[in-house]
Every structure is written in C-alpha cells, then in structure tokens.
Design brief:
Blueprint (H helix, E strand, L loop, with lengths): L1 E7 L7 H12 L5 E7 L6 H9 L4 E3 L14 H10 L4 E6 L2 H13 L4 E6 L8 H14 L5 E4 L2 H7 L8 E3 L13 H10 L7 E6 L8 H14 L3 E6 L5 H10 L6 E5 L5 H6 L2 E4 L8 H8 L4 E4 L13 E4 L4 H11 L7 H7 L4 H13 L1
Parallel strand pairs: 1-2, 1-4, 2-3, 4-5, 5-6, 6-7, 8-9, 8-11, 9-10, 11-12, 12-13
C-alpha cells in the first residue's frame, strides 16, 4: 500500500482545490493507497474533517499564521520538522502560491520522498513583473525536486510556472460526478419549496467562496437591476468566506433581503444546482472553476465573466462570457436565459473528459507509476 500525502498550501476551507481533491479520492476504486492530509495552517471546514475520517486518513495542522501576500517562509521550519518525522511514497502539493509549491516540494524531496507532485488550481488577475520574477526563482527551486507538474487549466499553469516548465505541465480536468447534477423534478421542486420559491419564480444561483476573486458584490448589483424589471426573480448565494458580512450588508443596503438568500456553506450542492434556472459567475480571475463545471453539468445557462478561462466553455451556447465593465449586458443575458435548459449537458461534459471517474483514474495512475 502506498502512502500518499495531500498537502494544502492554504487553510483547508471551502475552495476549489479542496473540492477537487476530495471528489477524486472518493471516486477512486483502488485500495492501494493510504491518504493523509497536511496544511501548514488550520482546517476551517468541519465537513472536510469528516471526509478525512471516512477516508481513514490523518489530518495534520501545523497552525502557522496565515498571511496571504506576505512571506511564506514562516512555514519552512514547521514543514521540515513534519517531514523529518513522517515519510510518504507520494506527496501531492496543492496551492495558489508558487512559493508554497517551491518550499514544500524542496523539503519533501530532501526528506527522501520518491515522487513529488505540484498542482496549480488558480489563475491570476494579472501577471505582474513581480509574479514573473517569483515564477523564475521558484522554478529554479523546484528543479530537481518536482517529479510531476500539474494544473487544472492552461491559465493556472501560466500563473504558477515559468516558461521552461510549461511544456512539462500535465493538465488534469476538474472532474465532477456528472450524474449527481442531472435535473430531477422532485428534487428541484423540494428545494425550491423549502426556500420559498415558486415554480414560476426565476432563481439565479451562485456557488463560491466569498472573496474578492469571486466578486459576489457584482452579482448582487446586477441582480438589483434585474429584480426591478423582474420582481419574481431570486438570487441564491451558496458559500462562506471573509467577505460574507460585507456581502450581507450590501444586500440590506439595497433592500434585497427578501429576494437574495445567503445559504452559507453547503457540502453537497448538487440538489441546489437542480433548483436554479440560471448561474451567475462574475469572477475577477479563475483557473478552471469547479462550480462552473457543476453548473454546466446541471444544464444551466451560465452568465460568466470574460476573466474566466475559455477552457471552461464545455457546452457551447449555454455559456456567455461578458465584460465586467458593462452590467447591462449581464442583465440582458440573464433575461434571455429564462426557461433554457441543456438536456445533453452530462453527455457533453463526459465527452470533454470532465467526469470524476476519468480524473480519478488519472490520479491513481500518477500515484502508482
């Protein structure tokens, strides 16, 4: 049995990289692995603790202070101490920080780990000169310490790896359980009834961590204008995060408390996608977002920021990429999306390679070889 350590370069919370890891580990059929989990920080999501327990793994939290955008060198000594005491056959590092990918891969390889994998799950809003310098320096540190470079999209690869590394990067699709999102009328009706939505109401959904990147305030602004013309519309926001209170306050300022629902953190969102009529996703930057793939799998028309990678357009006419600079186009797109549903969504995503069964097999092979 191979011992595999899944490393999260940020606190374990509600983000896409956590969703990717746990979706795929649950889908693996092989009993050839023993999985453990490490974060230099803490686990903020109790549901993930339960997932780890169900998988029979150990969770290690080093409880370093989390300071995004500042030096990540604070994690170096605690991570080195961990690897001095714990040995693994495979170390798979997931992070939105190039520095973390470099630091942990160097420590893991120095500790004698046979296979070290680094994985980028996020793009950047803008690649600055500082980003380019950091990619170059971190690329030099990863050289000789990393066995496999992975990313969820070309944009995510470009954000974390220098040009010399890019040809080596393997793109791994953010696979989802396609069958779980196929619309079932009884489920759709039950969810809508539980939240006070009639079948004739127009429900717009959004799923994402409440942060600057996901830009939920823009969705609220667009909805405010739409709701004036379409009073039977509702906006359901699923997620939690540092911007939760700001978003809540904005909803109250616009007197939208009765039509915008903050549903908080929901572990299994598949039933809620079935209850939506459309999906809004105004992110400022993205790699290849799992929540958008889930919305497409649910057959929903998706109104998406043009800052999101076109690699996420898997169902053609059901995804509109729009500029954040023009709210009127968002309102028009939402109005025209009413009563549209893609019955062939699951088959289209399966053909595009976005089934979690396929991505799980890819990881199994990667770990075993």
């Amino acid at each position: 049995m191979k011992k595999v350590l899944e490393v999260f370069g940020e606190p374990i919370a509600t983000g896409g990289q956590e969703t990717f890891v746990f979706n795929n580990l649950k889908a693996m059929e092989s009993d050839a692995f023993k999985f453990d989990f490490l974060t230099p920080y803490t686990c903020e999501n109790n549901d993930r603790r339960k997932d780890i327990k169900r998988l029979g793994g150990n969770l290690y939290e080093l409880k370093c202070p989390f300071r995004p955008g500042k030096s990540r060198r604070l994690i170096k000594k605690p991570v080195a101490a961990f690897f001095a005491q714990n040995k693994y056959d495979v170390v798979h590092i997931h992070s939105g920080s190039t520095s973390v990918l470099a630091i942990v891969s160097q420590i893991a390889k120095k500790a004698g780990t046979p296979k070290v994998i680094v994985h980028s799950h996020c793009a950047l809003e803008k690649i600055t000169l500082l980003n380019k310098i950091n990619r170059r320096l971190c690329g030099m540190r990863m050289k000789g310490n990393v066995d496999l470079y992975c990313a969820c999209s070309e944009g995510a690869a470009l954000a974390k790896f220098c040009p010399e590394i890019l040809p080596k990067v393997q793109i791994i699709r953010n696979g989802v359980d396609l069958g779980a999102y196929r619309r079932v009328d009884s489920i759709r009706q039950a969810i809508r009834k539980s939240l006070g939505a009639k079948e004739t109401d127009f429900v717009i959904g959004h799923v994402g961590r409440m942060t600057y990147q996901k830009n939920q305030e823009y969705a609220i602004s667009v909805f405010n204008e739409l709701h004036s013309a379409k009073p039977n519309s509702q906006l359901w926001l699923i997620g939690d995060g540092p911007d939760y209170q700001t978003i809540k306050n904005r909803i109250s300022e616009l007197h939208l408390d009765n039509s915008v629902k903050l549903l908080g953190l929901i572990q299994d969102t598949s039933h809620y996608y079935q209850a939506f009529d459309a999906f809004i996703f105004p992110s400022r930057f993205e790699g290849l977002p799992i929540s958008l793939i889930e919305a497409e799998a649910a057959g929903l028309p998706c109104i998406v920021s043009d800052r999101v990678s076109r690699e996420s357009d898997l169902v053609g006419d059901f995804v509109d990429f729009l500029p954040l600079e023009d709210e009127s186009t968002w309102i028009s797109a939402l109005e025209s999306s009413a009563d549209r549903y893609n019955e062939n969504a699951s088959e289209q995503l399966h053909d595009a390679g976005f089934s979690v069964t396929d991505s799980a097999r890819t990881l199994e092979k990667m770990y075993l070889e």
